[in-house]
Design brief:
This protein has helices at residues 2-24, 32-35, 50-71, 77-107, 114-134, 137-159, 161-171. It is mostly helical.
Length: 172
């Protein structure tokens, strides 16, 4: 019974949050007629099972996170999780420059070690996952094209043992 009360409180909170976000963003809040539309307010009846309520909550959380992405500040656990996925992706992507700089300093000439391409691929994949989550088409297009370049460079290096040995030797 206690978990049902907590679950009901979450449903009320989740149903009211999009209206509050709309008001904070300067948009008109939904009217009573539009709020009654399917998907706007979660209706709980004694016949609902827990799995159905969890699905409804997950869908409402997804809508809230999408609204947060448009507003720019995460406030749910899912929003913060994806924010950190994107942040870690950018950190890994930045780390590739550090690796390349360090290898070049050690060799006293410009070199591109294999780790550069691996870090590029991992960082791009993380940022691309974040871009898909927030539906940012600019990031999706930019990073999806980069993945093909990084995969191609890794393929060339793996296909040619001489090129791979040279890159590994240069990065030592």
């Amino acid at each position: 019974m206690r978990s049902l009360i907590i679950l009901g409180g979450c449903l009320v909170l989740l149903a009211s949050t999009p209206m509050a976000l709309a008001q904070d963003a300067g948009r008109e809040a939904p009217t009573a007629a539009s709020a009654a539309a399917p998907g706007r307010i979660l209706h709980v009846s004694p016949d609902d099972d827990v799995a159905s309520l969890r699905r409804q909550i997950a869908e409402q959380e997804r809508k809230i996170v999408l609204l947060e992405a448009k507003v720019g500040t995460p406030s749910t656990a899912i929003g913060w999780t994806w924010f950190f996925v994107g942040l870690i992706g950018e950190g890994v992507f930045f780390l590739r420059f550090v690796v390349q700089w360090w290898a070049s300093e050690r060799q006293k000439r410009t070199v591109v070690p294999m780790a550069f391409w691996h870090l590029s691929l991992i960082g791009t994949a993380l940022v691309l996952a974040y871009a898909f989550f927030i539906f940012n088409y600019v990031f999706i297009l930019a990073y999806s094209l980069n993945i093909f370049l990084y995969l191609r460079n890794l393929y060339i290096a793996k296909r040619s043992p001489e090129a791979q040995a040279l890159m590994e030797k240069e990065s030592e």
